[in-house]
Design brief:
This protein has 12 helices and 12 strands. By secondary structure, the protein is α/β, with parallel strands linked by helices. The strands form 3 sheets. A 7-stranded parallel sheet has the order 3-2-1-4-5-6-10, sandwiched between helices. A 3-stranded mixed sheet has the order 7-9-11. It has a two-stranded parallel ribbon with strand order 8-12. It binds nicotinamide-adenine-dinucleotide and thymidine-5'-diphosphate (TYD).
């Protein structure tokens, strides 16, 4: 059994690669990644040398490359994590999001049609449902909610989902989709909220809070996301969409305080010592107010549930960044971009 995992050098794809390569030693796992600024081969370093793991550098939107690759490798399955994933960047360069997230997904599915596939799994996001009002805490997104996006990022992900469903209906491609809430955990690029707070608190630098910090996100530990994808990919029904989320909503400002306190405690500083770093800045344009995901279908149909309490997950995450300061230092300085040259230039 051979699976191509696109975007496996990124945050969630990387954590999934660790999970899959270690849990399925008799299956072949190929990571296909373009190594954009967000892709980091150091994340996959612990897998180097394993018999069931390979890395291939390439662009999911490069049709000639993708068709040649599928012709040669004939994968049984594809899991598509590859994407431009940061909302703030999508406000600056929407077209890049259209290219990678929409055209890239379509290109992969065309190759799957041409060469045959058992399963194409699309890793999507809860952001495709748009946002909910803060005061309506009774409302959650389930799989029946329509796609109603806000940012160029979420619009590109929602468009890709529509293409995935169309490729099933029109061409009979065996697809599935998962839509997860915000993830946190090891190997997270420090442009996203939680690793940004950790890295800036460690460096004693100001921590930017957009608007009033009242926006709400629903946080899930990344390994729980990886396990959910594994379950859906193996046992989820074809053409179905599954929401993934841990019913764990936090206001941004509250989560920032929890992270700062955890950093202070683990560094032996007085808890709260770094609260003065909090700096309110201009709000993000079109900023979604609240995400809240209902994952009952996944829990009932496939028996998934989150394994970690949030406080435990945050402590584990901060500890990981402290124990792996080299990974963070390299990412922050940009040195990780030289790693591919070092590791692969003579191969
Ligand atoms: P990430 O930005 O950390 O990683 C994306 C990876 O894709 C990188 O390794 C990058 O090099 C690669 N990539 C980008 N363009 C490519 C291309 N054209 N060809 C091949 N590879 C390319 O993202 P992430 O946070 O790990 O997110 C992974 C997936 O999960 C995305 O599809 C995202 O929409 C989705 N998602 C993310 C979250 C979250 O909280 N981060 C939540 C729900 C869903
Ligand atoms: P982010 O991690 O970018 O994820 P998303 O926008 O996809 O949910 O941001 C999480 C929340 O934190 C979001 O409401 C924006 C906010 N935020 C800040 O307040 N300051 C920051 O520096 C960043 C990156 C995000």
């Amino acid at each position: 059994m051979k699976t191509i995992v696109t975007g496996g050098a990124g945050f969630i794809g990387g954590n999934f690669m660790h999970f899959a390569v270690n849990n399925y030693p008799d299956e072949e796992w190929i990571c296909l990644d373009k190594l954009t600024y967000a892709g980091n081969l150091e994340t996959l370093e612990p897998l180097e040398g394993k018999k069931n793991y390979r890395f291939i550098k390439g662009d999911i939107a490069d049709r000639t490359f993708i068709f040649d690759l599928f012709r040669k490798e004939k994968p049984d399955r594809v899991i598509n994590f590859a994407a431009e994933s940061h909302v703030d960047r999508s406000l600056k360069d929407p077209e890049l999001f259209l290219r990678t997230n929409v055209l890239g997904t379509v290109c992969l599915m065309d190759a799957c049609r041409e060469f045959g596939i058992e399963r194409f799994h699309q890793v999507s996001t809860d952001e495709v449902y748009g946002d909910l009002p803060i005061e309506r805490t009774d409302l959650f997104f389930n799989e029946e909610n329509p796609i109603k996006t806000s940012s160029p990022y979420s619009s590109s992900k929602g468009s890709a989902d529509l293409f995935v469903l169309a490729y099933h209906r029109t061409f009979g491609l065996p697809v599935s989709i998962s839509r997860c809430s915000n993830n946190y955990g090891p190997y997270h690029f420090p442009e996203k909220l939680i690793p940004l707070v950790i890295s800036r608190a460690l460096a004693d630098e100001s921590i930017p809070v957009y608007g009033k910090g009242e926006n709400v996100r629903d946080w899930l530990y990344v390994e729980d996301h990886a396990r959910a994808i594994d379950m859906i990919f193996h046992n989820g029904k074809i053409a179905e969409t599954y929401n993934i989320g841990g019913f764990n909503e936090w206001k941004n400002i509250d989560i920032i305080k929890v992270v700062i306190n955890t950093v202070d405690r683990l560094l032996g500083r007085k808890e709260g010592e770094d609260m003065n770093l909090i700096t309110y800045v201009t709000d993000r344009k079109g900023h979604d107010m609240r995400y809240a995901i209902d994952s009952t279908k996944l829990q009932k149909e496939l028996g998934w549930e989150p394994s970690l309490q949030f406080e435990e997950g945050i402590e584990k995450t901060v500890r990981w960044y402290l124990d792996n300061h080299e990974w963070l230092d390299n990412v922050t300085s940009g040195d990780y971009l030289k790693y591919y040259e070092k590791m692969y230039s003579n191969r």
